[in-house]
Design brief:
Blueprint: H1 2-7, E1 11-20, H2 30-34, E2 40-45, E3 51-52, H3 54-62, E4 72-76, H4 87-98, E5 101-106, H5 115-124, E6 131-137, H6 141-147, E7 153-157, H7 162-168, E8 173-177, H8 183-190, E9 195-199, E10 211-214, E11 227-229, E12 254-258, H9 267-281, E13 285-290, H10 297-305, E14 310-314, H11 320-323, E15 328-332, H12 335-342, E16 347-351, H13 354-357, E17 368-373, H14 377-392, H15 394-404, H16 412-421
Parallel strand pairs: 1-4, 5-6, 5-8, 6-7, 8-9, 9-10, 10-11, 12-13, 12-15, 13-14, 15-16, 16-17
Antiparallel strand pairs: 1-2, 1-3
Helix pairs in contact: 9-14
Amino acid sequence: YTSFVKSEAEVLRPIKLENHCIVNETDYPLVDLLSNRVSQLTNIEFDGFAIYKNAPVIEFLENPAVGASVSIEPFVVEYDELEIRSLQDWWVAEKLLKRKRIIFRVIGSNKIGMGHIFRALSLAHEISDHEVLFVTDTENEIVVNRLAGYDYWLGVYQNDEVLDEIIALKPDLVINDVLSTEKSEIKYLQDQNIKVVNFEDVGSGAACADITYNELYDTPLFEGNNIRWGHEYLFVRDEFDKAKKNKIPQSITSILIAFGGTDQHDLTMKCLNTVYSLCLECNVKIHVVIGPGYPNHQTLFDTVQNMDNVILEHSTAVISNIMEQCQWAITSNGRTVYELAHLNIPAIVISQHVREETHNFATLEHGFLRTGVYSGEKTLGTVLKLLKRVLEDHEFRNDLYFKINPFEFSQNKKKVIKEIQSLLTYDENI
């Protein structure tokens, strides 16, 4: 109305600007059909409302035959304004009224790894009825943008401004996948009537969030009715849903060495050098997988060039394809353990630091041989001794396969999503 008054026009007519490929002919070259045609902004009539001054309307009603020439002011409505012209439009409108805004706050870098982003994307793809936005800080911009920015809107802010920027976006729910949070951060969001869900959080904010999922910790570290502990809430990446599970092998022909992230102790190189002679003697192929943050890539590459039966994979996007080729693994005590369990692949597990050692899923009862926190040559000696037994002791090996066989993590995602969505209440009387 303000725009109408300022214009001094006699009619305000709303329009929408939409991108369309305009076709002016019915017969045009095939190349135009097969190539990426250029779209252009087009004015589309919008009949949701219009504003008229009295005089020209009265003149037209009194004498329709004469008609009336009027000055028209176009008014551009927002791109997401929906005009209901059909029952289908009505259905869409109802869906939009029920839609909530969800913000995933994530981190991801060569140092931290990609697990937080992959988990958030896996959830986001399943919450299609709601509007999903991603937020990160400038320290994580490159990696997060590379993965999440393709599919979703991404906001990048200074670390000390993130919370205020999130509030400015007016979300109904914020899902934090940023490791430990502070109580003050969570309360700051909740004071704005925003629901909060945290993942992998052992900070003071964990007990304040509406729900916190600490699926990597089978033993609770502290109390809280809102905290979900243990592998019953863990779900693997989408790529593992259709991956082929390992059957109990007659012998081990391939093993995987993978320590992800930045591999702070260079356990990839150390374990490779430790078990290489044994694997060569037993004709066992070694698949080595390193992440983008691995610091000694060139040295490892040069080393592998002089080794037989060793395959090096760098920053592979689909590790499940490699796991499908292996019957055993040597890895760290993180999410890879659950991915291996999902595919029925036992492993020797080395905790890279004290925090990893608090992850208690990788036990003998679940089919894993755990060495504890890395402690130099002592740990490497244990790795060699355990692998030698695994390769030689058929009965011992089969027992581990029977223990790991029951685990399957694909269905847990439905349970987590259902609980998260229960926070998004909708008023049916709207």
